[in-house]
Amino acid sequence: MSTDTLFDPLRKKEIAATPEEKVRQWFIQRLLQDCGVPRHLMMSEVGMKYGAKTYRADILAYDRSGAPLLVVECKRPDVQLSEETARQAMRYNMVLGVRWLMLTNGARVLVFHREGDTFLPQGQIPNYEQMLCRQ
Fold first, then answer.
1. Distance of alpha carbon 87 from its chain centroid, rounded?
2. 72: closest CA among 38, 31, 33, 13?
3. Burial class, 29, CB count within 10 angstroms (exposed 0-12 / middle 13-18 / buried 19+)
4. pLDDT given for residue 56 in this prediction
5. How high is the mean pLDDT in each 10-residue block of the chain (135 residues)?
6. Number of C-beta neighbours around residue 45 at 10 A
7. If you placed Cys at 74, which of 3, 13, 23, 111 could pair as Cys (CB 3.0 to 4.6 Å)?
8. DSSP secondary structure string for all residues of the chain
9. Rounded CA gap, 132 and 106, in Å?
10. What's the CA gap between 50 and 113, in Å, rounded?
11. What is residue 71's predicted lDDT score, i.e. its pLDDT?
């Protein structure tokens, strides 16, 4: 592996080691190792359309039936996690219908759980089983 690339275990290929990609790969490892999300139920750089516009979710995790469960929006470390970042992730939800949203810049992780039509902030990152149980 070159120092200017990172191996993405979800896409199974070398990716340019941009600041955002470093955050994405760090968080993929966190989801795999700390949260117990099965590798075969995660994808990175998932394309989708909303209206005429195309979007790309950084990380998408699925429940055991294959339904979208979690979308993660990754930003470079120097980008503040803002309302606009949250709105971007919520736009993905218009297509995906996930129950969990996470935003990260590598320094901070914000977690939201959908209750009805509203995403409410959560105090910590749940593990995979907790995400499945809180539907």
1. 14
2. 31
3. exposed
4. 85
5. 82 94 97 97 87 86 96 95 85 87 96 91 95 87
6. 15
7. 23
8. --TTEEEETTTTEEEE--HHHHHHHHHHHIIIIIS---GGGEEEEEEEEETTEEEEEEEEEE-TTS-EEEEEEE--TTS---HHHHHHHHHHHHHH--SEEEEE-SS-EEEEEEETTEEEEESSPPPHHHHHH--
9. 24
10. 22
11. 95
Residue whose structure tokens are 């995660």: 42
β-bridge mates for residue 29, sequence order: none
Token pair listed for 1 = 């592996």
What the block records as the tokens of 75 is 């930003």
Tokens 């979208």 appear where? 68
CB atoms within 10 A of CB 50: 13
Which residue type does 128 have?
A: Y
Distance CA 52, CA 85 (A): 20
